[in-house]
Write a structure and sequence with these properties.
2 copies of one chain form a homodimer. Chain A has helices at about 30-40, 45-55, 60-65, 70-80, 110-120, 195-205, 255-265; strands at about 1-10, 15-20, 30, 95, 105, 135, 140-145, 150, 160, 160-170, 170-175, 185-190, 195, 215-225, 235-240, 245-250, 270, 275, 300-305, 305-315. Chain A is of the alpha+beta class and about 325 residues long. In chain A, the strands form 4 sheets. In chain A, strands 1, 2, 3, 4, 5, 6, 7, 10, 12, 14 and 18 form an 11-stranded mixed sheet that branches. At the A-B interface, α5, β6, α6, α7 and β17 of A face α5, β6, α6, α7 and β17 of B.
Chain lengths: ~325, ~325
């Protein structure tokens, strides 16, 4: 099954609605409409069906997943029956398929991460071979397919990152790799846009990255459930303005998806709707080719079985930046 | 005004309810009850009042703040009228006053952060004097007053961090320091518990910290609005099992609260309910005294005007940890 969200223009403004499909080519069905009709077939009044369907198929993917089987039963029933009245128009605009309560990104592709340290003239830290190291992204920075990437005023070096996104279907804690797959709702494409100049500055403090990452992370165009796709051996490609910058495979991953999920849940609650990123695939960024993005560039990420995620870079804006402080005499002289 | 949340045991389980007070000593008023009664005084039926009050005073502090003036008007009316029927029992259990959609922690106290690098035998990175550097915490790790701190199985070195928490009242983007204060809902105490051993390993990769921080961050016991408290010149103290480990002041902060808020909003959406931490106050952690916490330790943080936040350390559990990988020959030899 394939799950996404589209932009519905209602009387009270734009609202997200969940869509489901048996094939990613469509037809895509508005889950709320399909569930409303199913409830009516099962004896609900029109207003009762509308009310319950809105709770089972809310606009939020996280809220939907929190419904557990109430949500998956509705989705399976929708693609089983395929009510024509529930099909959405062909020109519907898809938006980010998820609104995660948390987004955590790992470093699991060795050739990419070892390049990153060498690029910064640093040795590759041994900890990257001890466990999958991560940083927390910003869920407020999530954008969807065809959304423009806001170019933060404090950066001049923009880059993309080609990643596989893992969507958690239910909440777990202290999972082991063996049971981790049961907690996965599906997979999507993730573009962890990066402002390399400020990212490099932040990582010099051993922290984050924050401002270097949190301005935008794109996901989509939709989610494929684990029965449709296995995360191993997927061809992964990146194109910029139509030119192929990367053609690689998910099979080169060093930490497996179950290991990533299990470690993400170690000692903490990993909740439904959470997005985990594998980290950049080998060769899946501009910095590895010594190339930068410029305003207006169109970045297309394609992963086998997961479609194409397209985003265009916006124009740099203007904004405030802090004024440098002088270290206190007793603090010692800071390093560059 | 003071705003908090308490644990209400209803027929369908425990649910959080928002409370407000004119003085932090009480009486604390259940905002939903107070608002329900106000709506009735203004012509609503009992069921209409109950329904609307539940939306204006939901269990989620973030959802409440998203209501804008609908929420603040209700809160101000509640402490103006003080309906006795809305007062909560004296033995009510306060929980985390907020359920932030994002939690970002900065490094703004120079003596603390410069110590941290020296402790790790590293020079103090110059970037810390260029802008307030941050990492993203985990909102799933938020715990409240008197909650036990879960001790993650992968750590043997637990520590606390004494911080001032800033709660965002409404959403903003690209704010300047001059306008930032208008976006602040209030202040609370923040204890950014830290697993120093794994934090140190993660920061060696320049990333996170993640597992070193995300297991638990305590906030509370309540929020004081900016008309009650100024973030400058507040006495800040930490006690462990009754012994004072730290007695410092918020006046030593290097980046001001408005600068922190403005930088947090630069190029990204800073949304209502978000928690920002100032970073550890000078001397506000055990590592600065070369002391570690042990299971069962009671950590009390006190900030002038913000009460006392108490948390006891739990016992270490058991769990899975990843198996070390061998670097690929072409990746080069990793550093420790």
């Amino acid at each position: 099954m394939y799950i996404g969200r589209f932009r519905y223009n209602g009387r009270d403004g734009v609202e997200p609605r969940i869509v489901v499909a048996r094939c990613s080519a469509g037809p895509w069905l508005d889950l709320r409409t399909a569930e409303r009709m199913r409830l009516e077939r099962r004896g609900a009044s029109a207003s009762g069906a509308r009310r319950i369907a809105a709770e089972i198929a809310p606009g939020s993917m996280t809220a939907a997943l929190e419904g557990g089987n109430a949500f998956t039963d509705a989705a399976l029933a929708a693609i089983e029956v395929v009510e024509e009245a529930a099909a959405i128009p062909n020109d519907s605009v898809f938006i980010a398929p998820l609104d995660p309560p948390a987004y955590r990104d790992f470093m699991a592709f060795e050739r990419h991460f070892s390049f990153g340290y060498r690029w910064r003239k640093l040795p590759v830290p041994g900890v990257l071979y001890e466990f999958p190291v991560s940083y927390m992204g910003s869920v407020q920075g999530i954008i969807g397919p065809d959304d423009e990437v806001p170019w933060p005023h404090f950066s001049r070096h923009m880059d993309f990152e080609l990643e596989l996104g893992i969507v958690m279907g239910r909440s777990g804690r202290d999972l082991r790799p063996e049971s981790a797959p049961e907690y996965i709702a599906g997979y999507t494409i993730l573009n962890d846009f990066s402002a390399r100049d400020i990212q490099l500055r932040e990582m010099a403090a051993g922290l984050g990255p924050s401002k270097g990452k949190h301005f935008a992370s794109a996901v989509g165009p939709w989610i494929a459930t684990p029965d449709e796709i296995s995360p191993t051996g997927l061809r992964m490609r990146a194109r910029v303005n139509g030119d192929t910058w990367c053609d690689t495979s998910s099979s080169e991953i060093m930490w497996s998806v179950p290991e990533i999920v299990a470690w993400a849940s170690a000692g903490e609650n990993l909740v439904a709707g959470t997005l985990l990123g594998t980290g950049t695939a080998n060769g899946g960024s501009g910095v590895e080719l010594d190339r930068k993005l410029v305003p207006g560039d169109l970045v297309e990420l394609e992963i086998e079985g997961l479609g194409v995620l397209r985003n265009r870079l916006g124009m740099p804006g203007e904004g405030w930046t802090p004024t440098r402080r002088e270290p206190a005499p007793e603090a010692g002289s800071p390093a560059r």
